[in-house]
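Tokens as discussed.
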């Protein structure tokens, strides 16, 4: 499935609008983050990139400030910009040296959700004191 098709499919699923309900659903950035993005980060990234453990590469993904500040290579996410978001490049496994997670590539749906999050401006309701 092409990335654009995946993105459209995800957005349709997230809208919650079924036949006859078009336009009745609203996009809630905080809810999208909490239900779709935060679980991926917790499951796939926090072991190495959160303050719950030793932070590797100086990159913490357990707060908005963490990914905005970024790690050794600067900010992990550039809202709206897939090409220049190191997090997206890493999860796509384009370069074996920077591929994340290093042992096994994320499932395509999780990659598509993270890409969608970045394209939507990377909304993140967490604060640095409330990961």
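Sequence:
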């Amino acid at each position: 499935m092409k990335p654009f098709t995946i993105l459209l499919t995800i957005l349709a699923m997230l809208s919650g609008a079924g036949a006859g309900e078009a336009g009745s659903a609203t996009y809630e950035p905080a809810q999208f983050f909490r239900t779709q993005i935060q679980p991926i980060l917790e499951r796939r990234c926090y072991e190495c990139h959160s303050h719950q453990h030793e932070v590797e590469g100086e990159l913490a993904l357990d707060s908005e400030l963490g990914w905005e500040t970024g790690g050794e290579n600067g900010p992990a996410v550039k809202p709206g910009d897939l090409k220049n978001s190191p997090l997206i490049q890493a999860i796509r496994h384009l370069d074996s040296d920077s591929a994340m997670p290093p042992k096994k590539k994320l499932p395509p749906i999780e990659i598509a959700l993270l890409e969608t999050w970045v394209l939507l401006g990377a909304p993140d309701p967490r604060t640095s004191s409330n990961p």
